[in-house]
Amino acid sequence: MQADAITAIVEQWKHERPDLDATPMLVIGRLFRLTDALDQRLRPPFGDAGLGSGDFDVLAALRRAGDPYALSAGELSRTVLVTTGAITKRVDRLEARGLVGRSVTEADSRGRLITLTAEGVALTDRLIAVHLDNQARLLAGLSEDERAQLAGLLGRLASTLAADGG
Question: Of the chain's two ends, which shows fewer C-beta atoms within 10 Å, N or C?
Fold first, then answer.
């Protein structure tokens, strides 16, 4: 494997502080850099569709919920992993574009359901195909076995962090 900036940083720490183990940076540092690089490559199709950061996440969560493509703000918040305040701002933008609508829940007149409109379903279906193709393109340098191994390792890391309170 070709050396990268993270390898160089670890080597510098080895030289300057040989008493410390800097090798965790080989994983954590790369994950940080990859997150930024992936975000820069994955977001343009959403921007081209006039969606702000996180808007597609709301549309996708509603679409994944299945017909009638509706969730409460609390359910969306738990699915998208942001606050209900952030959900409200996103839903406001999406509603202004006619991609979602709000309605009163039958069980509680104070509650609101956020529902994809027909236009929202069509846009989400178009964008998820583009998004998945984009993801596949970004992973093309890895074999199917390597992708499966990486997915498993990242899943284990996520579980470890969750168990650690993260």
Answer: N
